[in-house]
Write a structure and sequence with these properties.
single chain; about 190 residues; alpha+beta; globular
């Protein structure tokens, strides 16, 4: 499942509030900052205090979502870096797992708002790639029906409850709609 939408900072907070209050999803960094561990967030406020959800960040606001009920294992992988290319840092971590749901919040940059993204592998896609990636274990360890159910719940909330209009398949949330009416361009490929 892949779904793209436009959201400003208040829209993103509404999505995070829904995740933390209405689901049992755990929220992890997709990648850690250089030289740091992955953070698991327990509230919208923790994320808001770390990321500027409105404009350009030095850290992208990208997350992996997982429920303990999904059955698979969340894996944290250390990535070795070249300190010459990474501000003197030698490592960072990534969060991995076949059944994780990705949530990427894009930013407002140079009067253009890029679309944000919600998505995940399906069972067939994960099984097809399983042989090329020995790090992430067995794709069949994940409860794909539950992953799809939870991702549909998130998409439904964003697309049918929060969005005030659509551009093709892209949902436009209220804050993004206000930005566009004020002259901000919405960038959708």
């Amino acid at each position: 499942m892949n779904y793209d939408f436009f959201a400003n900072a208040s829209d993103k907070k509404n999505i995070l509030d829904f995740i933390f209050k209405e689901t049992n999803l755990r929220v992890f960094d997709l990648y850690s900052a250089y030289g740091q561990d992955i953070t698991e967030y327990k509230s919208s406020q923790e994320i808001i205090s770390k990321f500027n959800l409105d404009t350009e960040n030095h850290l992208p606001a990208t997350f992996n979502l997982c429920s303990d009920d999904f059955g698979g294992e969340v894996l944290f992988r250390r990535i070795e870096l070249d300190p010459k290319s990474c501000e003197g840092h030698a490592f960072r971590f990534s969060t991995n797992g076949w059944g994780l749901i990705q949530l990427y919040f894009e930013e407002l940059k140079k009067n253009t708002l890029k679309y944000s993204h919600l998505g995940h592998f399906n069972q067939k896609g994960a099984l097809g790639l399983e042989g090329t990636n020995n790090f992430m274990g067995k794709a069949d360890n994940w409860n794909w029906k539950l992953i799809e159910k939870i991702s549909r719940k998130l998409k439904y909330h964003i697309h049918n409850k929060l969005a005030v209009r659509k551009i093709g398949s892209f949902g436009i949330l209220p804050g993004a709609d206000t930005l566009e009416k004020a002259g901000i361009k919405l960038w959708c490929i």
